[in-house]
Amino acid sequence: MAALWQRLQKQGGIELLIRVVLLLYPFFPVLDWAVQSLTGQGIRLDRQLVNIFIFGLLALALNLQVGYAGLLQLGIAAFFAIGAMTTGVLTVEKYPFQLGFWGAILVAPVMAGAAGLLLGAPTLRLRGDYLAIVTLGFGEVMRIVLLNLENITDGPRGLNPIAEPWLPVFVKDTIGAEKAIYAFALFALVAAVVLLRLLERSRLGRAFVALREDELAAACMGLDPARIKLLAFAGGAALAGLAGALYATNLTTTAEPNTYDFNYSVMVLCCLIIGGLGSLRGALMGALLLMGFDNVVSPLLTRVLQKAIGGDSNFVMASFSNWRWIIFGAALVLMMRLRPEGLWPSRRIAKELHEPPAEVA
Amino acid sequence: MLDTILQQLIIGLTNGMVFALVALGYTMVYGILEFINFAHGDVFMLTSFLALTLVGLFDLQGASGASLAGGLCLVILTCALFGAGLNYVIDRLVYKPLRKAPKLAPLVSAIGVSFILQNLGLFWGGMPLKVFGGGNQAAAPKAFPDILPAHNLLGAGSGLTLMPKDVLVIGASLVVMAALYGVVRFSKLGKAMRATAQDPAAARLMGIDVDQVIGATFLVGGGLAGFAAVIYSLYINTIHYQMGYQNGLYAFTAAVVGGIGNIPGAVLGGLLLGLVRAYSDQFIGAQWQPAVLFGILILILIFRPSGLLGSTAREKV
Amino acid sequence: MTAPLLEVRKLTLKFGGLTAVSEVDLTVQEGEVAAVIGPNGAGKTSLFNAITGIYEPTSGEVLLGGEDVREPMTRRHLVQQALAGLLLGTMALLATANIDTMWLAVVKNRAEPGFSAGAMAQEAVRYLQALPRIEPRVGRFFVVSGDGKTTLGTAKTRQEALVLRDALPPQPAAATARWLRLLALVVGTAVGVAAARAVWKRTRRTPTSLARRGVARTFQNIRLFHNMTVLENVLVAMDRHLGHTQPWTHPSRRLDTLLPLGLLGMLLALVATLRLGDPAGALPAILLGAFLLGGIAYLVHIGRRGAFSQATLALEAAASDKALELLTFVGLAQNANDLSRNLPYGYQRRLEIARALATQPRLLLLDEPAAGMNPSETVALMHLIRQIRDRGVTVLLIEHHMRVVMGISDRITVLVHGKRIAEGTAEEIRNNPSVIEAYLGTDGEH
Lengths: 361, 317, 446
Prior knowledge:
The complex is a heterotrimer of chains A (361), B (317) and C (446). Chain A has 361 residues and is mainly α. Chain A has 17 helices and no strands. Chain A has helices spanning 2-10, 13-24, 28-39, 46-68, 76-91, 100-123, 128-148, 150-153, 169-174, 176-201, 203-213, 215-220, 225-251, 262-275, 280-309, 324-338, 347-354. In chain A, helix 14 (262-275) crosses helix 15. The longest helix of chain A has 30 residues, at 280-309. In chain C, helix 8 packs across helix 11 (310-330) and helix 9 runs antiparallel to helix 10. By secondary structure, chain C is of the alpha/beta class. Chains in contact: A-B, A-C, B-C.
């Protein structure tokens, strides 16, 4: 299996496929529009696809923290939630701020980034694996806070409706708000990819590598690990905040706070591990795979399963969506065992993972 | 007011004992392997499902006297063995091949295992058994029958309530902890554990089978978690397939507060956290419980990163 | 007389019950080559670690050029601590005052005409003072006492409620609530300041700060960045000296492609808006058009130009030149693009030296540089160390190779069991009876 995969990759088949898929994205709305005008009924892929972009953005944000800076962060959903909630508070009708989407999209990353800064500043200097517990706890606390501050966040109902973004009349009349969100989300994703690519090749990118390889040696060479990590942590948090703002706008509600739980964070981590830590392409493909599993494969298999069992749909194992955590968990375990660099690895990280630094005496 | 404070003291101590038992498993594994065994909390959770199943199987709900005591002992023993075995198997299957891998690998694997176990817990709850309410609602919390006599030991008129189960939790936990302390302190295995925790490479050179020691650590940790699961279920009377994650989070926090890798520290941290939780539930509100505990974790990490009893670790350069 | 470059005063280092270094004094003058020798386990590397900020000494001082190496408290730190205090104080205050109901009184249902930020701030202050407040609930406006316990009246509109509230006789302010809030503010601030101070105290002496003060080192067990090339290893160490560039990326700031497309976006948006008869939306449309089209242009531009501006590329090129010069100096120029993990052992040691030199140190600490080298490599190393000294870098080394130590050191310090037992020139050390007894007598020459 692995050999087959490698051969495919070497021959560039997968590469080609990825490129085709990526290149197709801008044209889905056109396709949608064409189908709609021909048959009178759209296929309405945009909303689903926007979710993929948003998930991709989240994966990229986590990639900046886990892949580049080597910080195991298990609470990315909290920053996502901050972005969504900021957007909600700043745009819904019942609050006096009403900045609209374009204002909120600027403020949301700032708020999430600030939260990252505040959480990271005292804790990033600590032993690495403490951060896992701190971020895990933060994620849980953020969920609880959002649930409990009912007057502010509307608790389990979530703030809604979030108005669609303001658009110039000619845009609104021609393509409509939904497709505009699609375009903007795609734009944000591409921008994030390009900027992160730059980051990889910059001075800071080099410092990230040095830090991952040997933090102490890097510090002795005058790099400031705390500062570099904080930069990555806050940057990732801000990007997650941006994703949150898009999510809330696309959904027109800030959703139930329980959406942003630990499972969500782990799902994003899953994307990264499957796609490949530190690899931009990997993060995006991982997002695509996971969203595809959740929205296409899982319902399909459920139907098959139900038919096979016949009738008793109450039985817990009969619904395939109840299997997803076994599958994701097994994916994490197997990937770490068999292919820790992921399916679409970054060359550098693959090397680091396969040849750990010599045992220090 | 005094009664309230004393009552919360009892609640805090009993809760703290359970935290401490789970925290011990985290701290022992961390002390030796330097990694957070995220799956530990879910071993705890899964064992509590076993306990409920056994209670149903033995029909302990109506039992009393000797049959209750015997049945309970059997349940505790089976659950401790199950927890130990499960933890051991996980280590052998998942963590052992990753001993030489970078730190991220076992951590991520542990998260994966945690989710697998959680999902298994969901399935277990969906089994068509009477104790699971027929299994129609797999995801719902399961009621754990109150099999211990529920009368107040301090007399019916007292403002304080001290039930047999409180005494059982505290007493049994103390016995187990004392036994653990004795093993770690005085037995050959315990010495090997401490040596391995300090320096695995040197321990290996001294002829200690490090792998065996690690296995034993997982066995002991799993056994403690299994024991804690029974105690917890008897005490709280509700189990849920997601409870491993939250209790695990608290227990790990307790381990960090006490000083990770430090066995008395884990007990101290557990008790402290139990008390803080009880008083914050009383005076701040139960819905803010995670926030309060998280605040304490952050403060400890800022003011005393090595925990209350931990010593500053010497980095190997 | 000027202060010595490095002065270690009564430095003690304890780990639990173990004393690794005990009251050691050490002085290194500018421009010399000094050495620390001693049998294995004498505490030499621990001493190095304490000097380079890896360990915090249990007691004693390290001075560099007469100055304590610990970072002094600067105004920046004070501001940081004050901010941390303010932040935590505010959080404690808002938690105590219950921000959730405060939101009711201050923000909720204010989407009416006449709303202003000033009014909101006023309401917030009133709320925090525990004065009567207005809470909109289920379509009505409740006037509630400061402690939130009693309802003083209801009204249909906010205006009416305001009138109702102002007509109330002066309420005995909820004194307890007010004191509690003040207490929370004070305690929160104190904890915040203390927390920031605790973090600051721990970071006064770090490897980073020592490196930035001009102390560089190599490691006994080589710690290169194994998966980076030889050149990259050196470039990482030069990071701080890469000119006045920011650490993040430098896409071109040239506006040549960005500006026209941005302008085009503006123009299109303007024309379209006006043609469709929506003059009010013209300005936002222009901004949006400029933002999106300009952004696309920007991305295309940096994608095409290989991401970095001429200035950055020039800086990187200059840095590479400098790194190559250093590699030539240690004799590794021909290996510049090899992965450092693939270098032979002796080369790795020299790369560590080049990397340390790239930080432009005043003082270079070498931890057993000759370990594992053959005789001819050792001779080359001695030559290299002299050359380093001639570049104006003071050298302090730990070494077991007596030929190296005796051959190049101006001054030698002998450590045994964490204590300094002798100090002097090579000649003096060779003839010191206690050294011979404690060290040479038992260990001999390697």
